[in-house]
Specification:
The protein is mostly helical. The protein is 76% helix and 0% strand. 18% of the residues are buried. The model has no long low-confidence stretch (mean pLDDT 94).
Length: 79
C-alpha cells in the first residue's frame, strides 16, 4: 500500500481522509496537521485550512508545546 504522502499526488481526497483520521484522534504529531493544511490550501478550501490550523494550535500547544509555531504563523498570514 502506498503512503499517504504518495496518495497526495494520485488521490488527494483519499489522502485528506487519512490525515483527517489523525486530526480526529487529536494526534500529538505535527506532520498530519501540516500536510492536511497544505492540501486544503492547494484546493483553495480556506475555511477547512483555518479549522485544521486552529485545531493543531490547540492540541499541540497542550501536548507538545513549541510544535504549534508553524501553525500560528500560517494562521496569521491568512487573517
Amino acid at each position: 500500500m502506498s503512503t499517504i504522502k504518495e496518495m497526495e499526488k494520485t488521490n488527494p481526497q483519499k489522502a485528506i481522509k487519512e490525515y483527517e483520521k489523525y486530526v480526529q484522534a487529536e494526534s500529538d504529531k505535527d506532520a498530519p496537521y501540516k500536510r492536511l493544511a497544505i492540501l486544503y490550501r492547494k484546493l483553495r478550501q480556506d475555511d477547512k485550512e483555518i479549522e485544521v490550523l486552529e485545531k493543531a494550535i490547540k492540541i499541540l500547544s497542550e501536548k507538545k508545546p513549541g510544535k504549534e509555531d508553524w501553525f500560528v504563523k500560517r494562521l496569521a498570514k491568512m487573517k
